[in-house]
Write the structure tokens for this entry.
Amino acid sequence: MGVAVGLPFMEAMLPAMPQASSAGAKPPVRLMFLYVPNGIDMENWNPSYSGPLTELPRILKPLEPFRNDVLMLSNLTHNWARVLLDGPGDHGRCSANYLTGAHVQKTDRSIHVDGTMSMDQLIASRIGTETRLASLELGMEDPRQSGNCDSGYSCAYQFNLAWRTPTTPVAPEPNPRLLFERLFGEGAPGQRREHLKMRQQQQRSILDFVLDDAKTLQRQLAARDKQKLDEYLASVREIEKRIQASERFGGAPDPAVDAPAGIPTSYQEHMRLMFDMLALAFQTDSTRIATLLLAHDGSNRTFPEIGIADGHHNLSHHMNKDETMDKISQIDNWYIQQLAWFLNKLDQTKDLDGKSVLDNSMIVYGCGNSDGNAHTHVNLPIILRVVAAARCKPAAI
């Protein structure tokens, strides 16, 4: 694992932080979205009261150390995730809809609301220039971008939270080693900055070749193919802009730790390793916006960590059976345990102002389904961990 140690904010980092100064330095605020699949046992999720949080429900007990930091939001509905004459396919709709609020179509892979992008990408488009990476998109599974996954909806809907445009998802990275190398470069400590610089130069050379080749091809294409090529070239130029933005910040931080070996076989180890990467990215101010898809909606993963051999999706169609509902509650509680582990990690990491990184982070945890059995998209389960500077009284609302 060995990736828990990163570089803390130091005065030497201040020039890369436009809003900071050595006198009264102000750390950045981070924002992260965590998505959990297949609905929740809402009876053991919702408090039986509104107002200040006191006794936490069964599923949320692991958050007791952070109870004073949490807002539980209720009665939130994603209307465009409902059937609305489209027929089955709630898992595809709720994933694509979660951060876009948009309606999706079964006819092709696109989100059909003009100008729609996901919330994380909208924010990244405003503040992403202040860091080497505008945003990070992470997942726990290899993302599928083609084929039908849920009743005619493209797999792109279920395997992506972030959408840069109505037709362009941002694929999440599931491999912690590749993520580490993207953040800090390849090789052993002391070699990574030079390797990262070499990789950027190689990427520039490849992009130059692609653009030159495309210009030659463009003169030979019909109008429809030219439109497709223009969309492709826009993506290439977006990559070029990201490389240029990264280069403006000089060399990347070089944590004095080894890169992860790859994807662990244990789901919990994998998840916590991705949390390590996120904490490191926030701590080094490599990015301030992130999404993590804990599992795609409709995932039928088993949970041997807690002795559950049944698939999660199968269990979510519980028919209100007590034994099945108990297993769902255990899975929901297990996910909250991982969230609490991550919050504790951020809380133990000091920020530039002497507070913790957690104090300067806003974290949204939730799901696009409420009742996985009925596939309802009303009263969605949403937790908001608010930033200390703007903290409200902890409450169920």
DSSP finds nine helices and twelve strands in the chain. The CA atoms of residues 224 and 230 lie 10 Å apart.
